[in-house]
Amino acid sequence: QKEVEQDPGPLSVPEGAIVSLNCTYSNSAFQYFMWYRQYSRKGPELLMYTYSSGNKEDGRFTAQVDKSSKYISLFIRDSQPSDSATYLCALSKAAGNKLTFGGGTRVLVKP
Amino acid sequence: EAGVTQFPSHSVIEKGQTVTLRCDPISGHDNLYWYRRVMGKEIKFLLHFVKESKQDESGMPNNRFLAERTGGTYSTLKVQPAELEDSGVYFCASSQVDGGLFIGTQYFGPGTRLLVL
């Protein structure tokens, strides 16, 4: 069983829609929860991070962590075609430690 | 400020040959990480340097892989001899403890695409 599960998609939405992404994990030792965005032929780029449970908002992006359910989410409001990319959740047991990634969800925002 | 750079961007080699990948981290970053993504799988951790020391090499698949970081600056990852299953994208990331609210943000390079035939 994978430590982090993420639906691979693809997830296709019309421009302006809300994109909802999520990951589940099995190890309660994870303390840091991150979302990376990866465009084709590029490296992952950090979008959001959260420490422990709760919500965090940054512009059009909202990250949620529910440690009791071992479930993390990323919401993208007012989605744009430029948001089309693969979104990866990444978890860490301590700051600076190795990242454990989900498989990534490919998102396509259609104009 | 320059980001993490990796060289080469692509490499095609035959089984049994040797390949050396290079990573230049962001200047001043003490932490350097290697990850790999094989076809259809998630990105997986290989190892972590703090300066020139190996902090965690639990993800190294076998002794055909050798990572070095002489002088605590750039790092190389050598695969010798390469096997078919080594094909994939090799990412390097770097981070620094900066005393901010979140320490250890990992910045990724564009990756090296390795194909072993």
- Give the overall shape of chain A: globular
What is the distance, rounded to the nearest whole angstrom, between the alpha carbons of the first and last residues of chain B? 37 Å
Gross morphology of chain B: globular
Strand residue percentage of chain A? over 45%
Describe the structure.
The complex is a heterodimer of chains A (111) and B (117). With 111 residues, chain A is mainly β. Helices cover 0% and strands 55% of the residues of chain A. In chain A, strands 2, 4, 5, 9, 10 and 11 form a 6-stranded mixed sheet that branches. Chain A has a 5-stranded antiparallel sheet with strand order 1-3-8-7-6, with no helix packed on it. In chain B, the strands form 2 sheets. In chain B, strands 2, 4, 5, 6, 9, 10 and 11 form a 7-stranded mixed sheet that branches. Chain B has a 4-stranded antiparallel sheet with strand order 1-3-8-7, with no helix packed on it. Chain B contains no helices and 11 strands. With 117 residues, chain B is an all-beta fold.
Write the layout of secondary structure elements.
The complex is a heterodimer of chains A (111) and B (117).
Chain A: E1 4-6, E2 11-14, E3 19-25, E4 32-38, E5 45-51, E6 54-58, E7 61-66, E8 71-76, E9 85-92, E10 100-101, E11 105-110
Parallel strand pairs in A: 2-11
Antiparallel strand pairs in A: 1-3, 3-8, 4-5, 4-9, 6-7, 7-8, 9-10, 9-11
Chain B: E1 5-7, E2 10-13, E3 19-24, E4 31-37, E5 44-50, E6 53-56, E7 65-68, E8 75-79, E9 88-95, E10 107-108, E11 112-116
